[in-house]
Amino acid sequence: MSTHTLNKSVDDVSTKSLQLPSQEEIADVVEPAKVLENAIYISDKAKSKVTNLMKDAGLGEDPSYFLRVGVVGGGCSGLSYKMDFDNEQKPMDQSFEDKGIKIVTDLKSFLYLVNTELEFSDGLNGKGFYFNNPNASRSCGCGESFAV
């Protein structure tokens, strides 16, 4: 078959006869990827650690408490992360829920943390929480501060 014949065959196909699958049909076949929705996320390992820490602090049964994350000035690279448990949400706070964990941040910090995932490592190279932040242009060696 020559290229010319192939092109002619393609040109003869009516676009009206093509049936594209619906979103539902695609979802049945393909596992959907994690769609970033301008939020803050938490890994399974970090969720488990946060849940245990809340229970240890006596907050596990109190639904008013949530994980507050933020960004403050300081550290080797200029900005540092902070985390705490809180039960008072402020008017300009941004609130998200991932894997059953409520995560709250102030609006200014959210600009630095959009689409960041909180992770936890218990490996030999360091144990603790760390932020997988796609907005950080560089970070220090210890991973506790970053710059955008």
Instruction: Tell me the number of helical segments per DSSP (H or I, 4 or more residues long).
Output: 4
Q: Briefly, what CATH class?
A: Mainly Beta
Low-pLDDT ranges: 1-17, 30-35
| CATH architecture term | Sandwich
From the N-terminal CA to the C-terminal CA, the straight-line distance is 55 Å
Rg on CA atoms, Å: 23 Å
Which structural class is indicated by helix and strand composition?
alpha+beta
What share of residues is helical? Answer: 25-40%
- Mean pLDDT reading: 77
The overall strand count is 9
Tell me, what's the shape? globular
What's the number of domains?
1
Strand order of the largest sheet: 4-5-2-3-9-8
Can you describe what's shown?
The protein is α+β, with helices and mostly antiparallel strands. A hairpin with a 2-residue loop joins β6 and β7 (126-132). Helix content is 25%, strand content 32%. The chain has one domain (41-147): HesB-like domain (Hypothetical Protein Aq_1857, Chain: A). The longest helix has 13 residues, at 44-56. Residues 1-17 and 30-35 have low confidence and may be disordered. It starts with a helix and ends with a strand. It has 4 helices and 9 strands, in the order ααβαββββαββββ.
